[in-house]
C-alpha cells in the first residue's frame, strides 16, 4: 500500500523520487540495444492479416539509424516532418529515425480529411509528409496531391508504399546531430473533443520520463511484454505505451488497429502482462466471446484512461480478468500522464479516483479565475507544474500564454477535487460543465450513475440548449445487445432515485454508436452539435416530468 499523508490544502508538492532521466528517445534506444541487443523490442501485429513482424533491440536501432540517414539526405535538423497514417511498423521506424536525425515529427490523425490535414501542415509549417496511399476508403495520395500547392513550406511527399525505396538512401551513413533532452521532438495536435486542434510542442525529456514513471507506477516488470492498440498519433500510443516498454527494456506489441479478438490472441500468444486501452477498448475485450476460451493468466495489469473511467467498469474488469488496474490521467500538453492510481490501491480509490500526481510534478486544484489554491475537497481546475509541461503551442503565442502561465503552471481545463491524501477525483471539464439556470452540473456524476444500470453499454451526458434554463441535461445512451432495453421513463426514474431533480436528464437520446476520435474518446462537442441541429431525436416520455425545482431550491437539495 502507498504511504499515507495528510495535506492541508489542495496542493501536491513534487515528489523528487525517482530521478529524472536526462536523455532522448534516441539514447533510450541506444542504451537498450547495448544492454539487451537480442531481446525482442517490437512486435507489429497486423489486424488485417493477423501476421506479425518483430525486431530485436539491435535490429530496431539499426533500422532507425538507416531511416535517420535517409531523412538527413532530404531534411535538416529542426525541420518538421508530418506522418499521416494508421499504426504500422514503418510509423515506428520513422519516429525513431526522426528522433535520431534531430527532426520534429508532426503526428496527424489518419482519419483527418483534406481541410484538417491542410490545417495541421500549414500550422506546423511542415517541410515533408509521410502518408499511406489510402485509409478507410479515403484516397490519401489524392488529398496530398490536391493540398500540396497551397502549402509553400511542403517540399517532400513520401508515400509509405515507396518506403523501401526511400530507405535505400540510408545505406550510406551521414553524421547524426547531437540532440538534447530539452529539444522539441514532436508536435501533437490536440484530439479535438472540445474544438479545433492546436499543435502542442513536446520534448524528449517529457515524453521519456512521463512514460517511464507511468510504467513504474503500473509495476510493469523489466523485460515485460506490453500490448497496445493505442493510435500512434496519440501521446498514449507513440510515447506512453511504446516508451513505457522500452524504458523497462521490455517488448512493445502494437496492433495496427484495434481488433478485440486479435488483441486477445496477442495477449495470450505473446504472454502479455500489461495492456493499455481506453475504456471502449476494455469493454470490447471484456465482452468478446473468445475471451473465456483463452489463457490470459499472464495479464497482470490493465492500464486505462484518456477519458473518465466509470467506477463500475473498474470493478468489473478486475473481476473478469483477475488482474490489477491502473487509471491514468494526462493530456497532450503535459507529454502524457500526470496522475495515476497504483495497482495496489484500495478498490475504492481504484474505482473513484485518478490517483496521485506522478513523480516530479507539482499539482494543485486552483480557482480558475484567480489561480488560488482551493481547500481540500473543493472542486476547481487542475493545474500542473514541472518538467512535463509542453514548450508551448506551435506558432500560437496567445494560446500558449493562456494555457502555460509565466510562473510555470499549466492549466489543464479539467475539473477535480483533491483529498487529504493527494488523490484526485475528476468532476468534469470546464468547457464540459452544464450551467442550468446558473447552477453548475457536472456530467461525470450523472454518467457514473447511468453506468451502474445493467442495460447501459456506453453513455455521454451533455448540455442541450433551452430557452428557459439556458441549458438542460441531455443523456446519450448506447445499450447492451443482450439485455432488454429500458425506456426513457425507466432511465429517468433510475436517475431520479439517485440524483437531485435538477441533475436528472431531461432529454434522452438512444444511439447505436458515438462520434469518437481515433483514440476512442467520445466527441461531446459533436453530440451537442447533433442535438442542436435536430440530427438526434429525443426519446418520448410517457410519464409527465415532475416540475423542476428552482435554482435556489436545487442548491439546497
Automatic annotation (TrEMBL):
PANTHER family assigned: ACYL-COA SYNTHETASE, MEDIUM-CHAIN ACYL-COA LIGASE ACSF2, MITOCHONDRIAL
Organism field: Paraburkholderia domus
Annotated ranges, domain AMP-dependent synthetase/ligase: 30-394
One GO molecular-function entry: medium-chain fatty acid-CoA ligase activity
InterPro entries registered for this protein in UniProt: AMP-bd_C, AMP-bd_C_sf, AMP-binding_CS, AMP-dep_synth/lig_dom, ANL_N_sf
Family: Belongs to the ATP-dependent AMP-binding enzyme family.
A Pfam family that the UniProt record links to this protein: AMP-binding_C
A Gene Ontology BP annotation from the UniProt entry: fatty acid metabolic process
The EC number(s) this enzyme carries: 6.2.1.41
Domain AMP-binding enzyme C-terminal: 445-521
The keyword 4Fe-4S is assigned to this record: no
Protein name: 3-[(3aS,4S,7aS)-7a-methyl-1, 5-dioxo-octahydro-1H-inden-4-yl]propanoyl:CoA ligase
Key words, A-Z: Ligase
Domain of life of the source: Bacteria
Amino acid at each position: 500500500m502507498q504511504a499515507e499523508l495528510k495535506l492541508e490544502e489542495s496542493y501536491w508538492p513534487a515528489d523528487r523520487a525517482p530521478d529524472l532521466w536526462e536523455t532522448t528517445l534516441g539514447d533510450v534506444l541506444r542504451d537498450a540495444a547495448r544492454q539487451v541487443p537480442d531481446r525482442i523490442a517490437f512486435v507489429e501485429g497486423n489486424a488485417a492479416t493477423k501476421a506479425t513482424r518483430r525486431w530485436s533491440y539491435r535490429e530496431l536501432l539499426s533500422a532507425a539509424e538507416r531511416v535517420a540517414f535517409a531523412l538527413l539526405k532530404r531534411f535538416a535538423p529542426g525541420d518538421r516532418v508530418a506522418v499521416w497514417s494508421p499504426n504500422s511498423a514503418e510509423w515506428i521506424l520513422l519516429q525513431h529515425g526522426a528522433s535520431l536525425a534531430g527532426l520534429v515529427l508532426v503526428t496527424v490523425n489518419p482519419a483527418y480529411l483534406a481541410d484538417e490535414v491542410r490545417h495541421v501542415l500549414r500550422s506546423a509549417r511542415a517541410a515533408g509528409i509521410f502518408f499511406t496511399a489510402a485509409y478507410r476508403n479515403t484516397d490519401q495520395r489524392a488529398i496530398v496531391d490536391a493540398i500540396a500547392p497551397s502549402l509553400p513550406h511542403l517540399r517532400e511527399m513520401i508515400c509509405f508504399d515507396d518506403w523501401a525505396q526511400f530507405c535505400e538512401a540510408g545505406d550510406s551513413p551521414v553524421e547524426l546531430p547531437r540532440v538534447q533532452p530539452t529539444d522539441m521532438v514532436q508536435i501533437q495536435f490536440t484530439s479535438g473533443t472540445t474544438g479545433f486542434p492546436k499543435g502542442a510542442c513536446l520534448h524528449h525529456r517529457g515524453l521519456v520520463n512521463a512514460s517511464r514513471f507511468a510504467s513504474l507506477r503500473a509495476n510493469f516488470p523489466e523485460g515485460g511484454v506490453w500490448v497496445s492498440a493505442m493510435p500512434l498519433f496519440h501521446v498514449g500510443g507513440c510515447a506512453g505505451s511504446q516508451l513505457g516498454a522500452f524504458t523497462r527494456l521490455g517488448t512493445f506489441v502494437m496492433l495496427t488497429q484495434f481488433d478485440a479478438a486479435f488483441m486477445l490472441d496477442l495477449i495470450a500468444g505473446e504472454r502479455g502482462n500489461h495492456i493499455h486501452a481506453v475504456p471502449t477498448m476494455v469493454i470490447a475485450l471484456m465482452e468478446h466471446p473468445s475471451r473465456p476460451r483463452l489463457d490470459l493468466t499472464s495479464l497482470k495489469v490493465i492500464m486505462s484512461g484518456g477519458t473518465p473511467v466509470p467506477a463500475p467498469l473498474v470493478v468489473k474488469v478486475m473481476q473478469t480478468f483477475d488482474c490489477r488496474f491502473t487509471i491514468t490521467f494526462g493530456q497532450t500538453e503535459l507529454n502524457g500522464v500526470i496522475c495515476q492510481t497504483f495497482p495496489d490501491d484500495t478498490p475504492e480509490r481504484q474505482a473513484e479516483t485518478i490517483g496521485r500526481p506522478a513523480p516530479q510534478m507539482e499539482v494543485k486544484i486552483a480557482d480558475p479565475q484567480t489561480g488560488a489554491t482551493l481547500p481540500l475537497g473543493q472542486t476547481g481546475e487542475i493545474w500542473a507544474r514541472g518538467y512535463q509541461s509542453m514548450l508551448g503551442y506551435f506558432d500560437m503565442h496567445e494560446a500558449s500564454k493562456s494555457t502555460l502561465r509565466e510562473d510555470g503552471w499549466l492549466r489543464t481545463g479539467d475539473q477535480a477535487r483533491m483529498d487529504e491524501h493527494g488523490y484526485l477525483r475528476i468532476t468534469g471539464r470546464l468547457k464540459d460543465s452544464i450551467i442550468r439556470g446558473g447552477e453548475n452540473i457536472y456530467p461525470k456524476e450523472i454518467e457514473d450513475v447511468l453506468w451502474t444500470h445493467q442495460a447501459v453499454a456506453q453513455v455521454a451526458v451533455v448540455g442541450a440548449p433551452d430557452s428557459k434554463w439556458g441549458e438542460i441535461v441531455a443523456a446519450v445512451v448506447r445499450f447492451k445487445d443482450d439485455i432488454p432495453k429500458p425506456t426513457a421513463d425507466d432511465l429517468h426514474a433510475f436517475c431520479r432515485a439517485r440524483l437531485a431533480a435538477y441533475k436528472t436528464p431531461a432529454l434522452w437520446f438512444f444511439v447505436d454508436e458515438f462520434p469518437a476520435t481515433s483514440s476512442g474518446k467520445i466527441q461531446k462537442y459533436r453530440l451537442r452539435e447533433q442535438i442542436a441541429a435536430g440530427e438526434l431525436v429525443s426519446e418520448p416520455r410517457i410519464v409527465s416530468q415532475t416540475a423542476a425545482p428552482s435554482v435556489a431550491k436545487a442548491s439546497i437539495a
